Amino acid sequence: MFQKVLVANRGEIAVRILRTIRELGVRTVAVHSPVDSGALHVQTADEAVALAGDAPAESYLDGAAIIEAARSSGAQAIHPGYGFLAENSGFARAVEDAGLVFIGPKADVIAQLGDKPTARRLLAAAGVPIIPGLMAPETDPVRLAAAAADIGFPVLIKAAAGGGGKGMRVVEDPAQLASAAAEASGEARTAFGDGSIYLERYLPRTRHVEIQILADGQGRVVHLGERECSVQRRHQKIIEETPCPAPFFDAALRERMGAAAVAAAKTVGYTNAGTVEFLLADSGQFYFLEVNTRLQVEHPVTELVYGLDLVRHQLEIAAGAPLGLRQEDIAPRGHALECRIYAEDPAAGFMPSPGKVLFHRPAAGPFVRFDSGICSGAEVPVSYDPILGKLITWAEDRPLAIARMERALCENVILGVHTATEYLLDVMAHPAFRAGETHTRFLEEHFAAWAPDGARAARQAALAFASADLLGLARTATPGAPRGAAQGAEPFPSPWQTLWGFDSARG
What we know:
The chain has 16 helices and 22 strands. It has 507 residues and is an alpha+beta fold.
C-alpha cells in the first residue's frame, strides 16, 4: 500500500476519498484554490498544498501544478475523484510519466473510452448493443445536419470528452441544431478543455441504468449490479437508487447487463473502478451509452447495498493487489437511495446559490449517510459545481428507504444558501416515483410546472428564523428585511430569504 496519497479534487468527493485513505493508515494530501483554503477537504487532510487561482484552469484543472504538489509533498499516488481531471487521459499519462500512480485506469484506456465515439466503435465491435449515432466527433454544421437527418430527430448532442450532463442538448427541430451544437461545444470546452461533440439518436422515456465494475491488474473483472439514475433535471442526475425499481428488472436481466459491462471492460483491458452506462427500454432491451472511467457521484448506493468500500478497492487495485471478490459471491441486500443536495434556488429556476453556510446540521440516524463537503462557516464558491453533498439512505425494501429519505431530507439543516430540499421531498412523495415508474423524462412530465409552496415556505421561514435566533445567528429581525449585521459580526441573511430543510407539515 502507498505511504501517502494526494487527492486532486475538492468538496464532498475529496472528503469521502480522504476518509477511506486515512482508514488504511495512509497519509493524505489535499490541494486547494485560494477560496477553498478553509474548506472541509483541506481540514480533513493531513497536509495541503495551495494552488494558484480560483478559476478551475488555475487550480483543479492545472495538472502540472497538481503533479508538482504530489512531488513536493512526497505522495506516491494521485486520486482524481470525479470531474475536473478524472477522465483526462493527458493528465493520467503525465502522472504516470512523473513516476506516480494514477488511481484509475491506464491513460490509454481513458483515452479510448473517454472519447465517446471511439468507445462506441469498440463496444459495437465487441457485440454490445449501441444507440444509432456518429462514430466520430463532428463540429462542422453541414456534416452535423446531414448526420442528424440520417439518424433521425430528435437527436442528442453529447460531449465527446466528458459526461455529467455537460455539453449535452436534445434537439427536436433541425433549425435549432447549429445553435445547440455551438452551445454544447462551448460548454464542453469549458468543462473538459475539449469542445468535441457527436450525435446520438435521442430515445425518450427510457431508463438510465448503469453497471458498476471493478477490475484488477490480473485480468479479473466483476460487476456490482445496477444503479438507476433516470430522475434527471437538464440531463443532470439528482436521484439514484439500487436495485432498479422497474417491475420487469430481475436477476436474469441484471446478469445480462452485468455480462455486457464485464465484456466491455475486458475488451479494452480495463483496470480499477468504472461504470458502464446503458439506456433500458421497458421491453428489457438495453443500449450502450458510455463508460465512465472514474468513481461515480452515485457510488454510495452500491456500497450500501453490496457492503463494499469502492474507494478502498480502488486504492488496493492501484497498489497492485488482486481483487478479492468472485462474481458468485456478490449479491445485493436491501435498497438504497441517493439525493444530490445542491446549493441552488428552486424559486429562481434552480440557479446556483453561492454564499456562506452559516449553520449545518447533517441528517443522521439508522442507515442514513450524508457525504458532504461542507460544515458550518464553509464558503460555497461561485467558481465550481454547486453540489454540497449526497444524502443516502438504506433499508430492507424500497418503501422504507423512501420513508427514511423523507425523514432525512427534513432533518438535513443547511442555513445560508438555498437548496432544493422541498423539490426532492415532492419527488419522493409522487405516486409515479413510489410506483417505480421512472424514466429519463420523468421530471419533464411530472414536475415541469412545479413551484415552491408559498404557504409551506412561510412556515419554514418562521421556524428557520426562530432557530437562527436561538443559535444567536440572526442579524435581521424583520421578515423580508434587507441584510444587516451587528458591529463586527458576520452578516446573516434573513431566513425569510434563505430557508432550511425542515417542514412542519411533514414533521
